[in-house]
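Sample entry (100 residues):
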Amino acid sequence: MNTPPDKLTEVLRGWTVRPPVDPGFRPGVWQRIRREPGTSWPAYLRAHLAAWSLVAILALSSAGYAGRALARTHVRADREAMVVSYLVELDPRVQALLKP
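Predicted structure, serialized as tokens:
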């Protein structure tokens, strides 16, 4: 189904854009690249205070929860060791079972 090219297609094939040349374009780009950043670290933190506060709260909460869970595990293990030690001292039958 070959159709002969219409007038619009021929016009679009010959159409090109020729923007005016700006001699200061490249030096302007390099000048913007070399420019110092506009915000300092304290200014950045002030601008994003809510987000960083939320991050700090989440980090401290998760660290506290993990520390509490670890401490409870250690307390349980220490308690079990004390109970076993106490029972071994009281009951000679337990002593006989535990000694090789």
